[in-house]
Amino acid sequence: MRQDLDSHWRRWLNSDRRRPRSGQGNLLATVPAQTRTAIERDYDRVLFSTPVRRMADKTQVFPLDRSDSVRTRLTHSHEVANLARSVGIDLVFHHGVAAGLPEALRDVPALLATIGLAHDLGNPPFGHQGEDAIARWFEINRAEVLDAEPALSAAMKQDFLRFEGNAQTLRLLTKLQLINDDYGLNLTLASLAALVKYPAASDEIDRSRVTHKKHGYFQSERALMDEVWAGTGLAPGQRHPLTWIMEACDDIAYSVLDAEDAVKKGLLSFSDTIAFLRHEAPDDPVVTAVCDAAAAEHKAYRQERLSPDELNDISMQTFRIRAIGALMEAIGEVFIDSLPAMAEGGFEQELVNASRGGRLLAALKACNWQHAYRHKSVLRVELTGLRVIHGLMDAFWYAITRRDDPDDPASQRSTPLAGYLYQRISENYRRVFESPGNPMPIRYREAQLLTDMISGMTDSFAVSLFEEFREVGFRPTTQA
Fold first, then answer.
1. CA 54, CA 125: separation in Å to the nearest integer?
2. Does residue 379 sit in the same domain as residue 436?
3. Which of 34, 75, 184, 210 suits 28 as a labelling partner, its CA being 20 to 30 A distant?
4. For the stretch 185-205, what's the b/e string if a residue is b when 16 or more beta carbons lie within 10 angstroms of its beta carbon?
5. 350, 247 Cβ separation under 8 angstroms
6. Of the candidates 284, 115, 84, 274, which has an alpha carbon nearest to the alpha carbon of residue 194?
7. Domain check: are 370 and 431 in the same one?
8. What is the pLDDT of residues 306-331, one digit of tens each?
9. How confident is the model at residue 380 (pLDDT cuts 50, 70, 90)?
10. Which of 311, 341, 374 is the last residue of a domain?
11. Which of 374, 397, 418 is the last residue before a domain boundary?
12. What is the mean pLDDT of residues 374-394?
């Protein structure tokens, strides 16, 4: 079986890039051997890209939070990358994963770190509420924006009515970065395949399947996905095995660390958290072991001269260490057992839920939902985000569609206000939209330029731009 899996790993770790080297002449003969593998260079390409820096001002849970100790999308993504890389190191050095490929010792951890860092890049401002706001705008304006255009297929419409940050991540890295060609950061086929959490189009969503409950690419990237699947030996619609690990590390990171942030914000205490978990899963051995260990350390900390905030803070730090350790160990075990099924496309469970850590993760999610995600302070700012995004979408839609020649995206805007607003759209996004080589229908391209721009914004920039547009006289029309 290991030999059979090694043949799979050769395809799964395909380090070819979509854009071949060209125009180098004899220069390659003078270039020293690379000290990094191609997949290690993928991580560096993502790390130094502009969208990564923008995540420092994008919401994780608490929008527009003024505390520098509460996590943003950037800190969350670095934490996911760290956890995923750690699992990869354990798999290749202690469990013999891909043992027939010496380069896997470096490539498996590097690939997991890359997709962990990149997995949230396409998320719009204000977190998942931003995704909902974009989809709601298209639903409200569906008759005029989508249904009135016969060139749009049902699947094309669903790309926007079910707008998905995961699909935007793939588009961002393959189309919207490095503006001179159609390859973006030109990542390896292995990284692109593993990045796609949901290997389904918007018209292929099946909520009964973990891998298809959302969509992971837009119609504009459908041909790209066929190329990626063919290059990595995956069947169309099949998830890359390492994606299961990234998904699990994402779940672990946000579930454990959102609980830590909720305590830091004073929404509940360490003792409240432990009591909730014990009540939610009183007979689960993993929950009991983690809570017992954290509670014992909490009892010891009480002997110190600590303020209530300090006591909560240090106790949650030790809880975080215990909880993450238990969950990481659990997913490593189940991944090894499930890898043959993954190779055949027959695994359809979330990795943590299939492990002995499943009840701990479920209890943490329930605690966060009740005490953090639905807290009035979070809901109030979510409303601000909805109003801002809808206002910006109204403004940009006006700017995109008010032009002299409807068939020429690059033609002059027909009003001074439309011209001003259009110039506020990022130049590289406009270039992709206006490109004569863009094969998508004009209306699809217009809607996609709108979502490209909104998704690329940070929380603070979105708010300031919304106020700027109001100052120059634009008034939103969509009612949230």
1. 10
2. yes
3. 184
4. bbbbbbbbbbbbbbbbbbebb
5. yes
6. 115
7. no
8. 999 999 999 999 999 999 999 999 99
9. confident
10. 374
11. 374
12. 84
Cα–Cα distance for residue pair 393/140, rounded to 1 Å: 12
Q: Which pair of tokens denotes residue 353?
A: 């839920």
Select the more confidently predicted residue: 373 or 64: 373
Which tokens hold the place of 214?
């959302």
The domain tally of the chain equals 2
Residues for the chain: how many in total?
A: 480
Which CATH number covers residue 385?
A: 1.10.3550.10
Claim to verify: residue 245 and residue 357 sit in the same structural domain: yes
Question: Alpha carbon of 48 to those of 19, 141, 320: distances in Å?
Answer: 20, 37, 29
**SS3 of 72, please?**
strand
Give the C-alpha separation, 305 to 311, whole Å: 9
Q: Which long-range contacts (CB under 8 A, 24 or more apart) does 235-240 make?
A: 235/345, 236/199, 237/199, 237/200, 237/204, 237/211, 237/212, 237/345, 238/199, 238/211, 238/345, 239/196, 239/197, 239/199, 239/211, 239/342, 239/345, 240/12, 240/190, 240/193, 240/194, 240/196
Tokens 């601000």 locate to 384
Q: Measured between alpha carbons, how far is 213 from 210 in angstroms, rounded to an integer? A: 6
- Which is more confident, 182 or 142? 142
Rounded Cα distance between 247 and 80, Å, is 9
Q: Which residue has the tokens 């009480």?
A: 302
| Contact indicator for 62, 70 with CB cutoff of 8 Å | yes
User: Helix 416-423 crosses helix 376-401 at what angle (to 10 degrees)?
Assistant: 120
The reported pLDDT for the residue numbered 69 is 55
For the record, the structure tokens of 448 come out as 């996609």
Q: Give the angle subtended at the CA of 107 by the CAs of 104 and 110, to the nearest 5°.
A: 145
The amino acid occupying position 26 is N
8 A C-beta contact, residue 281 and residue 359: yes
Contact 270, 263 (CB under 8 A): yes
Look at residue 24 and tell me if it is in a domain. no
Does residue 469 register a pLDDT over 50?
yes
User: How many angstroms separate the CA atoms of 170 and 121, rounded?
Assistant: 9
Query: Cα dihedral sign for 230, 235, 239, 241?
Result: negative
206 three-state secondary structure: coil
Query: Token match 């066929």: residue?
Result: 226
At 137-176, the pLDDT tens digits run 999 999 999 999 999 999 999 999 999 999 999 999 999 9
φ/ψ of 59, rounded to 5, equals -65, 140
- Whether residue 438 is contained in a domain is answered as yes
Residue of 175, 214, 176 lying closest to 196 (CA atoms):
214
Angle at CA of residue 213, ends 212 and 215, nearest 5°: 65
Residue 365 within any structural domain of the chain: yes
